[in-house]
Amino acid sequence: MKLRTRSSAIIGTVCLVASLALTTASADEPTAPRGSAEITLKEVARAQNPIAGAAGPGDTVWIAERAGTVRVLDDQGLGEPVLDISDETSVDGERGLLGVAFDKEFAHFYISFTNREGTSTLDEFAVRDGEIQPDTRRTVLTQTQPYSNHNGGDIRFGPDGYLYIAFGDGGSGGDPHGNGQGLDTLLGKLLRIDPSGGEPYGIPADNPFVDDPNAKDEIWAYGLRNPWRFSFDTGTGDLLIGDVGQNDWEEIDWAPADSEGGENYGWSQMEGNHPFRGGTEPANHVPPVHEYGRGGLGCSVTGGYVYRGEAIPELKGQYLFSDYCDGTVRALRMANGEVTGESDLGVSGGQVISFVQDGKGELYVLDIAGSVSRIDPA
Asked: Which residues form the signal peptide (predicted)?
């Protein structure tokens, strides 16, 4: 591991301008101004395969680069790496440095990556005065991955203060090991742990399977194929997950803030709302709140965030997402866990690999080819 000091360079900007017509507000949102809003994807930095990010201390955004570096974006641009684990990270298939997160107090920084053996690894660092303390590094959790795809790797703290971790079904195709529905593995799951509640971590007492001897205590939800980016709505606490489909259907899953966990999103019995290869719909299947077919719309959903910023009032309360193959940024209007409308925002973020939400609720779009762009009003 290499730790480097912070320096900054001013980066030029490129603007992509489009018009957006949004006229319907969510039922639980104040009515936004009606009509059209011009929006911009404003390139604020270039990075080496930016893949994930998190709001950091002091109005910064910390950007993870796939090969194993972390850089800090502030009003001066994107600085030199503050963390470098590239000598420990594998990047074959869909592997790499796949997720980063801070706890609420910015006291700890977490990284989710695949090590040289391809094992999913979650490490923790203490943070003091906005700087990583390398001598405090510890490994919190590991998970062996049988294949180099569907590793998942996104991490996020929930409104409850616990750390959530998304793992794919382990890879190959069609879930050959049945991990999506198997409760005896962490693969194909959304996990919920307390990283400060034990060594190496604690299990929240109200996790849904803690009293089931045939299930892993860490599991919060299951039936996921490759959950590529999940988030919590900072306004409501609701959970949204973008789950990549097999051949035909991409899906977005939802759970309310008061969920007690245990949702079964269906894979590999279901692909979206559709039985997969003759599978039978599980009795406890929670269908996606939104799905789309691959006919011209893309091939790999990239989950995003519910917009809670102030710069674009017309977007407030709407869920923004994209597709890695299509790149168009889209918005879902939702009420009571149901989609009431969808908008094509008319801008392309390239090969959209992730969204990032800053401390003020504004959103950034990461293009794996290098662009870091902020969603701005024109």
From this structure: 1-27
- pLDDT(13) > 90: no
DSSP class of residue 87 equals T
Q: Which of 73, 116, 132 minimizes the C-alpha distance to 124?
A: 132
pLDDT tens, position by position, 262-310? 999 999 999 999 999 999 999 999 999 999 999 878 999 999 999 999 9
Contacts of 141 (CB under 8 A, 6+ apart): 121, 122, 165, 193, 200, 201
Q: Strands 60-65, 69-74: parallel, antiparallel or unpaired by DSSP?
A: antiparallel
Residue 113 neighbours by CB under 8 Å, 6+ apart: 68, 85, 88, 89, 96, 97, 98, 99, 120, 121, 123, 153
| Tens-digit pLDDT profile for residues 207-218 | 999 999 999 999
Q: What is the CA radius of gyration of the chain?
A: 19
pLDDT digits (tens, 9 = 90+) for 97-136: 999 999 999 999 999 999 999 999 999 999 999 999 999 9
β-pair partners for 120: 114, 143
More confident residue, 75 or 14: 75
Rounded Cα distance between 17 and 351, Å, is 18
Strands 328-335 and 338-348: what pairing?
antiparallel
**Are the C-beta atoms of 19 and 36 separated by less than 8 Å?**
yes
Give the residue-averaged pLDDT of 225-245. Answer: 98
Question: How far is residue 365 from each of residues 58, 129, 167, 330, 337, measured CA to CA in Å?
Answer: 20, 27, 22, 12, 25
Count CB atoms within 10 A of the CB of residue 201: 18
Q: Please say whether the beta carbons of 78 and 372 come within 8 A.
A: yes
Taking the complete model, does pTM exceed 0.70, yes or no? yes
Can you list the domains of the chain with their CATH numbers?
A: 15-42+89-377 (2.120.10.30)
pLDDT at 52: 98
